[in-house]
Every structure is written in C-alpha cells, then in structure tokens.
Write a structure and sequence with these properties.
Layout lengths: L2 H13 L19 E5 L2 E4 L4 E4 L15 H13 L8 H13 L5 E5 L2 H16 L3 E5 L12 E4 L2 E4 L6 H5 L1 E4 L4 H11 L3 E6 L15 H12 L2 E5 L12 H6 L5 E5 L9 E5 L1 H4 L18 H16 L2 H23 L4 E3 L4 E5 L32 H5 L3 H14 L2 E2 L8 E2 L6 H15 L3
Parallel strand pairs: 3-15, 5-8, 5-9, 9-10, 10-11
Antiparallel strand pairs: 1-2, 2-3, 4-12, 6-7, 11-12, 13-14, 14-16
Helix pairs in contact: 2-10, 3-10, 6-7, 11-14
C-alpha cells in the first residue's frame, strides 16, 4: 500500500459509504489498497505493488485475470454488437443449454444478476411452489444480502442479524447447525408441514470452508422428500468450481430440487441463476404465478463471458490443472503446519483452500488428511476439525486477520481478509506461484 491508495481512499470516503461498495473491501486498516489491474494470477495496486491473488474476485475468476484469447475475443465481439437490448438473445439460450447439459438436476433456468438475486428468487420459488412459508437454513451459512437469510439464533428464537430487517422476516426462517442431523430432524418434527424448503451450501463457503460429514446432505434430501419440501443447493461459490462442470452436487451424489448459481457462470461479470426441473422452475412468471423479472437478466455480455469460460474449461483441461495446483498448495500448507502450528487445520476441496486457526492439537497426526480436511471419521483430526459455523467462530479469528493476513500481504500474497471466505486457485497460477506462496506461508507461520 502507498500514497496513491491512501489518496484514492480519501476521495472514496467523501462519496462512497465507508469508502467502499462491499463491506469486506474496507480491509486492511487504516485503508485498503486500490487495484489498478490484474495480470494472470496477480493483481497490481495503484502504487505498483504486485500480489499473487487468491481472492480471484471472491470466486468468479476461474481462468484468472487474463482471459484466453478465444474468450476475450468473444466478449469483445459481443460488446461491439451493443450493450443490451431488453429482448432475448441466442447466447442466453446457449448458456442455459450448456448448464442443463452438464448439471444433472437442471432442466430449466432463469438467469438473474447476482448470487443474492438468485437465492432470493429461489426462496420465493420454493415458497410459491409449495404454498408454505418457512425455510430452513444453516447457522453461519451465507446466501447473499436477503432478508430471509440474514438471521441468527437468539436462544430458541431466530432474529435478524442486521438492523433494517423486520423481525417478522426471521419468524419464517428456521436455523440449524451445519452437519447436525439431530437438529434438522427436530425442526422437521416440529414444523414439517410448514417448511417450504432447505437452503444450504453444499460446503459452507463463507464460514471457513466446512465440508459435510458423510451422509449429511442425504439426510436433508430424505427429510425434504418425506415432508414435501424442496432441497435448494446454493452453489453460487461451488458451482463450476467443485466437481467441475457437474458442480458440487455431482460429487456429493445428492440431487437437489433447485440450484442457485453465480460467480463462474458469468465469467467474471455480474450474474446469478436458478435452475431445476422444468415443472418447478416454470412456476416463475410468465408461465407460473411466482413473479420474477429483471432489466439486466440474461445480459448478452455476461452470457457470452460465462458460456465461453465454461467451454474453455471443458476443452482445455482447466479443472485438472487448477485442482492439481490447489492440492499441491494444501499439501504443502499441511506440511508447514505440522512443523509450526499442528493445532491449525487446512481446509478446502478442488481449487478452494484455506487455513483455519483451530485451537486443539490431536494426539497424533499420522492418519490426518494430507491435503485439506475431508471430514473422514478415521482421521486423527476428526474430533477437532470444524463441523459448523460455531466451530469457526471459536477459532483464532483475530490472530488470522491481524497477524497472519497482514503478514502474508506484506509477503506479496493477497488472501481474503478474514478467516471466513474461501480462497481460490485459478488457471493462471502456476507451480512457481504455489512454491513461492508456500515459502511465504512458512516464513509467516514460523513467526506467529
């Protein structure tokens, strides 16, 4: 960081709320750095400082900052035709066809403009389709800035987690801990006839990258089937990153009724989508009674970027590369922790990774997962690795944020600025990036 970022932040404070357009971007204190450009797997700030970037726009940039020539060319050609039309275009049909061809649970889609809009629309659709009001969500799960899910448990009551939301919204949302079969069973025993659906991230992506224990999503699927509710997978983060083109649900081998998408499906441009069987998704207007509409939905530039990104990923072996690099990174991080901080836990899957500053060390590490927590019951870390958002809250979040993150930034490595959000490897990273990151990781961990 330097004088140009400081000057820009001063200007921003005069015209933007808090100087930013998304709260998390206000880090670090006393002011954030401003990005001038991205190059491959790096970003360069307004003062010319270069960082290896593992934030990747919080997930959309599967290919990195430099789009391959064929992707960039297609996007530029679409821009040259005109910005948008307020009428359908062929490319939105093509992207819908691609998603439906590769995600088994999806027959029909509705494109929207953000992950938040996708989950808002999915909740409305679940309620409209079932004629019920209540939704079950995971404590600490994140589904965007919508009133129905910005909630938290206060004793036996669910209340809004932010000011500005009437308490009546929270009354229709039931929260349970992730990975807790008994808790969700109890909720359905008490409220089953009133529950429209369960909204769940296949992997908690905004709370420490917590994977499901074996059979958990199967329990959710069974309960929804028994009670006539819909199982809604929020794959805004995991979609087209975990499980490749089949998304996380293909790895979990659990079929949701609805899936929300975002991030990668727009190739780095604003996007969201809701997909599922035709008989459910067709309940959206104009064919059904659940209102949904948007001026910029199906934006042709976004649709082109998403389609060409996914085609490139399919044709060029992108997933094999990014997953292999991330596996190398997680394995190296695990080795470093064994020497310097065996109480900490490496988490992640495919091209997602994170270190969680857990507080307990198992008696032995011989049977521990060697490339990120898999929630294996025979793993020596199983009793101490995070199972839900509460476990993440109990970790050393301030040490992660105030010491680890800032020192990694000083080493030229840009990570998400708290212990909660995912971090991502992109197609633009290479083995040299991984090795340099691991060297920086060891220097920082050895000094904490």
């Amino acid at each position: 960081m330097g004088k140009n970022s400081r000057r820009l932040y001063g200007r921003a404070l005069s015209v933007l709320a808090g100087g930013v357009n998304s709260s998390v971007r206000a880090e670090p204190s006393p002011y954030p750095f401003f990005v001038e450009k991205g190059e491959g797997g790096d970003i360069v700030d307004a003062d010319g400082n270069r960082y290896t970037d593992y934030v990747m726009g919080y997930g959309p940039l599967l290919l990195g900052h430099d789009l391959p020539e064929r992707v960039e060319g297609a996007v530029q050609s679409e821009v040259a035709r005109g910005p948008m039309y307020g009428a359908p275009t062929e490319v939105e049909v093509e992207l819908a066809e691609f998603v439906a061809d590769h995600v088994e649970s999806v027959e029909t889609l509705r494109f929207v403009n953000s992950g938040t809009e996708a989950t808002v629309s999915a909740v409305r659709l679940a309620r409209g389709y079932t004629g019920r009001d209540k939704m079950v969500v995971m404590e600490g799960g994140y589904h965007g800035a919508q009133e129905s899910t910005l909630v938290e448990r206060d004793g036996e009551t669910t209340v809004p987690s932010t000011s500005g939301i009437p308490s009546e919204f929270a009354e229709h949302t039931l929260t349970v801990p992730f990975n807790d079969d008994e808790a969700v069973e109890r909720v359905f025993e008490e409220h089953g006839e009133d529950i429209a659906g369960i909204l769940v991230e296949p992997i908690l992506g905004n709370n420490g990258v917590v994977r499901p224990v074996e059979g958990y999503h199967g329990t959710l699927r069974r309960l929804c089937d028994e009670h006539g509710a819909l199982l809604v997978f929020d794959e805004v983060i995991t979609g087209f990153r975990v499980g490749g083109l089949g998304c996380a649900q293909s790895v979990l081998e659990v079929t949701p009724d609805l899936t929300t998408f975002g991030k990668i499906v727009g190739g780095g441009f604003p996007v969201g989508a809701v997909g599922g069987p035709s008989d459910i998704v067709e309940e959206f207007t104009p064919t059904g009674d659940v209102f949904q509409s948007g001026t910029f939905s199906g934006h042709p530039v976004t649709m082109t970027a998403g389609l060409e990104t996914l085609r490139y990923a399919k044709d060029e072996g992108v997933y094999d590369r990014v997953n292999s690099l991330a596996d190398r990174l997680r394995s190296g991080m695990t080795d470093v922790l064994e020497d310097y901080a065996p109480e900490y836990t490496v988490v992640g899957v495919d091209s997602i990774f994170k270190t969680v500053f857990t507080r307990e060390t198992p008696e032995e590490l011989d049977t521990a997962c060697d490339s990120g927590c898999e929630q294996r019951q025979d793993c020596s870390r199983y009793g101490v690795c995070p199972k839900d958002a509460g476990d993440i809250d109990d970790t050393e979040t301030e040490r992660w944020k105030r010491l680890y993150w800032t020192e990694m930034l000083d080493e030229g490595v840009f990570l998400t600025p708290n212990q909660f959000e995912c971090q991502f490897v992109s197609y633009a990273h290479d083995e040299e990036d991984i090795d340099e990151t691991l060297a920086a990781y060891e220097r920082v961990l050895s000094s904490l």
